[in-house]
Specification:
Helix content: under 10%
Structural class: mainly beta
Bound molecules: fe (ii) ion
Oligomer: single chain
Largest sheet: 6 strands, antiparallel
């Protein structure tokens, strides 16, 4: 890139073949092995001066061939940051130095079995995850709590702590020695008002789930059992001002196979979904379970209290086993990947109303459009809200080809499509500095453009996303596709305001 200084921060060992043709290690999923920094990126259009903070994106980025079958959730964590201040943007990408990543860098090969492999095939007997013996890749989500970025693993594991500007791995969360042996699941939730972090975990031993609360001072202040009828595979939770909302979806490992150490998930259409409502600091005896139509929910969007009711929004799956998914590539992959595509799962925005007085659930489909990965203005998390920005998927693939702004008050939808061969990341909402309304700000995504072999970070005006980006930030290398992202305002980040130039403070800006 002419006129832009790109600093090479590091190169890690990759033993992947140059002609790799695995569908989730090639094309838009081509992994990276070089870490780079750009102090001031090239910008097409004009970055708004009131866009202030960092967009963080986690990606699954493998560096070694799998033992047998690679699944995209197995990839090592590479986090990308695009920082915005004073109408300029800086960029960095770094691997998270997880224990597993470091051990496999030393060994020069994969040591643990992935989600599509048999645990007994692992070369190491230790490991993490609800099913055990997996590498904690920490490549699923990224959130910012108490000024520190935390990366997570989709099946429960450690939380790795990253400097949100430099992306240096600064260790694992231990909460003063109170970090639970069962780990933390992929989606811990930050309450923007209380500053608390809410989380759950799950596993194959009774009570099968726990729920906990971390204070703004980073202490474990609450931890309780949540008794489930058996091992479950919950991925997400929700919260309101006063309640945590957990779930018992009827998609779980077949018990007879699980007894033999085989992890094969099946959906039980004849069983209801159950939603558990727990006062945020209460014990397991106070949980109230609400039954709802059978489904599996991968991601909830938000929840809030409305009189006697809790309003919970998320994505209902009409086909949680993805049997209708048609993977367009080699058919030996089709079964392995059928639970990855939004069209296969038939994911639609859905609202559950849980009445705390009558104990009744009412529910409704909010739209026929197939979307998932709904992001909201984080300042409205747990509180009444109106908008969610959710991704649209490429048929058969775990790839996003655009996004929809859903107006939950009017039902209106505004769409943007990235273009042929261009795939986006989860869209985070960045409130404008001095924001006066829920959509008074920007929507951010990071694209992978296979045809042009490049990536950009796109900035949309949240009030008119259909018009396309107001600015595009050029990144130094094509970024591998990935899963989750977040936004953190500069005001949340230590050193951001006091630094003359936050990019310089982390050694990024040229003099
Ligand atoms: Fe997720």
């Amino acid at each position: 890139m002419a006129g832009v200084d790109v600093e090479i921060l590091g190169r890690v060992l990759s033993t992947l073949p140059d002609d790799d043709d695995h569908p989730y290690r090639s094309g838009p999923w081509r992994p990276q092995s070089v870490e780079r920094a750009v102090g001031e990126c090239e910008v097409i259009g004009e970055l708004p001066a009131d866009l202030d903070g960092v967009y963080l994106r986690n990606t699954e980025n493998p560096v070694h061939p799998a033992l047998t079958n690679y699944h995209p959730f197995d990839g090592d964590s590479m986090v990308h940051v695009v920082g915005f201040r004073d109408g300029k943007a800086f960029y960095r990408n770094r691997f998270v130095r997880t224990d597993g990543f470091l051990a496999e860098q030393d060994a020069g090969k994969s040591l643990w079995a992935g989600v599509a492999e048999r645990p007994e095939d692992a070369l190491r007997r230790d490991g993490w995850g609800a099913r055990g013996r997996m590498k904690d890749a920490s490549s699923t989500d990224v959130v910012v709590h108490a000024g520190v970025a935390l990366t997570s693993f989709y099946q429960c594991g450690d939380l790795y702590r990253l400097d949100p500007l430099t992306l240096d791995t600064v260790g694992k969360v231990d909460w003063g020695g109170a970090f639970p042996a069962e780990g933390v699941s992929a989606h811990p939730k930050v309450d923007p008002v209380s500053g608390e972090l809410l989380f759950f975990n799950y596993g194959t031993e009774a009570p099968y789930m726990h729920y906990g609360v971390i204070s703004p001072d980073n202490e474990l202040v609450h931890y309780t059992d949540v008794e489930l009828p058996g091992p479950r595979l919950p991925h997400d939770m929700a919260f309101t001002e006063n309640y945590a909302i957990l779930n018992d979806c009827p998609l779980f490992w077949k018990p007879e196979l699980l007894a033999r150490g085989v992890h094969s998930a099946r959906f039980h259409r004849d069983m209801p979904m159950r939603l558990g409502v727990l006062p945020r600091r209460a014990g397991s005896g106070d949980i109230r379970w609400f039954e709802a139509e059978s489904t599996f929910v991968l991601h909830f969007v938000n929840a809030y209290e409305d009189g006697d009711e809790i309003v919970l929004d998320g994505f209902f799956q009409s086909d949680p086993e993805g049997r209708g998914s048609v993977f367009p590539g080699e058919q030996s992959y089709a079964k392995m990947f059928r639970m990855l595509s939004l069209d296969g799962l038939q994911t639609r925005l859905h609202r559950w109303r849980l009445n705390l007085v009558t104990g009744r659930t009412t529910e409704e489909r909010l739209t026929d459009s197939i979307t998932e990965f709904g992001m909201v203005n984080a300042g409205h998390a747990g509180r009444p809200y109106r908008y969610t920005y959710a991704s649209t998927g490429v048929p058969g693939w775990f790839l996003f080809d655009g996004f929809v702004k859903h107006d939950l008050l009017t039902g209106a939808q505004e769409r943007y499509r990235y273009g042929d061969g261009v795939f986006g990341s989860e869209t985070a909402v960045a409130p404008r500095v001095g924001s006066r309304g829920e959509d008074d700000g920007y929507v951010i995504t990071m694209t992978t453009d296979v045809a042009e072999d490049r990536s950009e970070c796109l900035v949309f005006d949240a009030t008119r996303v259909g018009d396309g980006p107001v600015a595009r930030v050029r990144l130094p290398e094509r970024v591998s596709s990935g899963t989750h992202s977040t936004w953190a305002a500069g005001a949340q980040l230590p050193g951001w305001r006091t630094a003359e130039d936050p990019a310089a403070a982390v050694g990024l800006s040229s003099p």
